[in-house]
Amino acid sequence: MGNNISNNDLSITLGKRIRELRKQKNLKIVDLSNLTGLTVSMISQVERAIISPSIETLKKIGNAMDTPVGYFFEDVNQPETQVNNVGKSSENSSVFSDVFPVVHEHQRKLLSPGKGIRFYLLNPNLNGPIEFIYNVYEPGSSTGDSLYSHPGSECGLILEGQLVVQIKDQVYVLEKGDSITFNSSDPHSKRNVSDKICTCVWANDPPWF
């Protein structure tokens, strides 16, 4: 799978953006800790790229600072993107206008530095009304220890391997060729409990990155 940025580089960029955004909002690490429920140590290590944040962790940080998770990944190959782009109007970003419609495999943006999980954006950018993600789950990986939720709906198709999807108290074991559709507002999680890599394509409407 080709991409333009390594997991380590992505972790550094994410940490820098989180720190810059926190300072812009005049928050100390302890303030962000209180808002997210994450420990001061964890936030500090994320900002210094000592550990890679899970999607669950990024959602907590984004929600606490009233910022969509997608901000942390925008123009990820350009680390100097300024923080003042946060909160920009979405009126002109609801469609993929003025962009080349084809995304070649080596051009896919890596959206997750989480251990054992890689999310690649299949859309040209993070704008637009729907989001398509190519997911790679290493054996034993998961989206987090707890269930999470976000507005909208999602649909996934398993390309290879096996993925366990939990929605509230229901557990579904998906195999190659299986698909699933559900309300994203229902608490859910995804994990690969097999000894083989799982690859799948996921759609989110509206986008939640």
Describe the structure.
- The chain is an alpha+beta fold.
- It has 2 domains: 7-83, lambda repressor-like DNA-binding domains (434 Repressor (Amino-terminal Domain)); 116-205, Jelly Rolls, CATH 2.60.120.
- The chain has helices at 7-24, 29-36, 40-47, 55-64, and strands at 109-110, 117-121, 131-137, 153-160, 163-167, 170-174, 179-183, 188-191, 198-205.
- Strands 1-2-3-9-4-7 form a 6-stranded antiparallel sheet, with no helix packed on it. The protein has a 3-stranded antiparallel sheet with strand order 6-5-8, with no helix packed on it.
- Residues 77-94 have low confidence and may be disordered.
Q: What's the number of helices? A: 4
Element order, helices and strands? HHHHEEEEEEEEE
- Secondary structure tally: strands: 9
CATH architecture of the largest domain: Sandwich
Describe the global form: globular
What would you give as the CATH superfamily of the largest domain? Jelly Rolls
User: What spatial order of strands do you see in the largest sheet?
Assistant: 1-2-3-9-4-7
Q: Tell me roughly what share of residues is in helical segments.
A: 10-25%
Q: What integer value in Å does the Rg equal?
A: 17 Å
Which CATH class of the largest domain?
A: Mainly Beta
- Spans of at least 5 consecutive residues whose pLDDT stays below 50 are 77-94
Please state the average pLDDT score: 85
